[in-house]
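>> received
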Amino acid sequence: MPVEDYTKNVNVIIRANTDKITSIHMGHITADINLNNITKPGEYTVPVTVNISNEIMGFDPFEIKVKPETVKIKVEKKATKFVSVEPALVGEPAKGFFVSAVNVTPNYVQIDGPEPMLEDISSLMTNMIDISNASKNLSFEVFAVDRNKMIQLENNGPYKVDISIEPIIMKKKFDNLSLQPMGLSQEIEIISELPKISITLQGTESLLEDFNLNAYSAQIDVSSLTESGKYDVPIKIIYPSYFKLIESSMNIVKIEVEKKSNIDNSDSDYLNDDFHENLTKELNNEVANDGISNILNEKNVD
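>> returned
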């Protein structure tokens, strides 16, 4: 098959009687080249054959010339190949989302053309698919595109393209969290220094990127401590249920408490059980109001 542009038009000069020549039109004359005898790739010079209709065959005098009389043409062996269909995605998903998968059905196309050209083709692109600001899965019907006129497609479409859009998952570390004693008895005081802890949450970028924990997100329940001594107390972390706690610097804290010799009732509003119980309820309500009621014991952190 031809692989390069070649002369597709020729000039035909006709000489005949004036009264006859005016009746001749383009439909009476055709020109072609015969490639049937070419069986091998290469460059050939092929004569141009002029065909005359019977209507003007009997004109006398009648003379016809064609320019050019020959055409140079390059031919290559025709081949068939199956190649993949690749969707041409343009644009970017919405902030916090990414393309997780793209599926094309069917995912291949048969192409025909000169064998040397097909060797360099492994896929064909579709027409453009705009995914700008996408935050959910998308589906399109598109067509395969090939701009090389020497290549022929058995089927250019439509092809179904399914695009999976998923949220970006990120991790965020929170440092220097203060441990808040909850339910501390009026008769007990903590005499050891409470350490700062750090935790790491995992969640979608759109939710976690600007999220911050409040001052009472790290708690220790000391309501059961009634005597002086040293205790290992589990740490509780309050955070939204759509996040996952993946790391904590500490799950249990060692504290030392001591019974007070003189109780100052002026501090009772801060220290009594009712205050801590109400504070915990308020924190839990705050979380629940945001749809995030989830309190996990850090002893369960892997």
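>> The two ends are 67 Å apart (CA to CA).
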